[in-house]
Amino acid sequence: MDLIPKTTEPKKFAKRDHHLLKPELQTRLSTRNKIVICSILFISWAFIFINLSSSANPPLLEPSTSENLPVRHFSCGEAFFPSPEACGNGGEKCVPNTSGVFEAKTMGFRCPANCVRDAPQDSTPHLVGNQDVTRRPLVIGGPIYRGDSEMCAAAVHAGVLEDAKGGCGVVKRMGQTNSFAGTDIYGVESLSVKTYFPLTFNFPMTNEEVLGACPEINDRSWALPWVSVGHTVLFFQITASAGARAVWIVSVASAHLLRLRSGSEPAEVVSVPAQKAVSDSAPIPNILEPEVYGQTLDNSVSNITFRWATPPPGVEGISMLVDDVERDRVYFRDGHAKDSFFWKRGPQAFVDYIRFGYVKDGAVLKYSPAGTWLLNDTWTGISANAAAS
Where do the LCCL domain residues begin and end (predicted)? Predict the structure, then answer.
């Protein structure tokens, strides 16, 4: 049976059939009207997208300046300086400006409740001077806190938040400070350590100023995909232009991708877990007696050079930690790898705590106990029992 339609006007039939496939809006609207309606659709979509996105993380009004600050959501264990390895040589990955001229940064933050009460009771040590700290909220100093302090626990210690409620506040990041006093306030005991550290922070607003300013979260961002799909369907009903459709798709997709990548987290905040668990059986370096050149009347700079005994098989390198910041790392297989660590200092008020650890698979296995370089340029050494473990 012949199913080919019989017609004496094949061209008119084809033209009429193509016309019927177009959406009605495309045939009834003029080009000018299409441009106007598509522009209104785009502005409408962008306005709704921005408003729904901001509902997931409303800004914090700072009473003293009446400015809206973006709010960063912190988990209980997060810190601006999470670990020596995460922050790299000299802390360069966590300190925005390592040139010596530090620009203070103020930001809003939000913390969950019970960060102090539910502090993890694990055995992972955090290195603070000559201490290995475990089983407590990590807060160092106050009212100026060391950068590796847990931000939310420090906010409770400062009286900015109540641990049982959590909430919002304003935090100001600053540069190097050389001493951190320990105090016991609001049920949080902070650690005392007298060392230099490249990143610090404080809370410039009191508890009374912050309370009531914390915006309520009414997250409606779940509707964003549906808003984009609805606007896209309408846009495609109005225009058949391949160029216009391509621009629309790229714009919508880019907005969603940027939102997923950025979220509510500023790029300057490092969001990685704190120091990983280490094995008690991991080897640590055997450091030989160092060469020390102390200060003289003609030279106010002293220096110390460390060398190590033959490393065990299987390790790739060695790392040096000075005052809880990684200062140097050597990989043994490098063709021109040095065989020593060199550290110098000028006149300063506090001692240096220095540790060493072997590197395997790009990570430090375990840092040694701290040796102390005293102000009179004496080196105390590292525990012989620890080095033999």
Answer: 111-192
Return the CATH number of the domain spanning residue range 291-382. Answer: 2.60.40.10
Count how many residues are written for the chain: 389
For residue 64, pLDDT over 70 is answered with no
Higher pLDDT among residues 289 and 53, named by residue: 289
Q: Given the DSSP bridges, would you call strands 67-69 and 131-133 parallel, antiparallel or unpaired?
A: unpaired
Q: Around Cβ 384, how many Cβ atoms within 10 Å?
A: 8
Note the pTM of the prediction, 2 decimals: 0.71
- How open is the CA angle 42-49-68, to the nearest 5 degrees? 125
* Per-residue model confidence as pLDDT tens digits over 175-193: 888 889 999 999 999 999 9
CATH of 71-202, one of 3.40.1190.10, 1.10.10.10, 2.170.130.20, 3.60.10.10: 2.170.130.20
- Give the E-state strand segments of the chain in sequence order: 60-62, 67-69, 71-73, 105-111, 126-128, 131-133, 145-146, 167-174, 184-185, 188-189, 200-202, 291-293, 302-306, 317-322, 325-331, 341-345, 352-360, 363-367, 371-373
Contacts of 283 (CB under 8 A, 6+ apart): 312, 315, 358, 365, 366, 389
For β-strands 67-69 and 363-367, DSSP reports them as: unpaired
pLDDT the model gives residue 186? 92
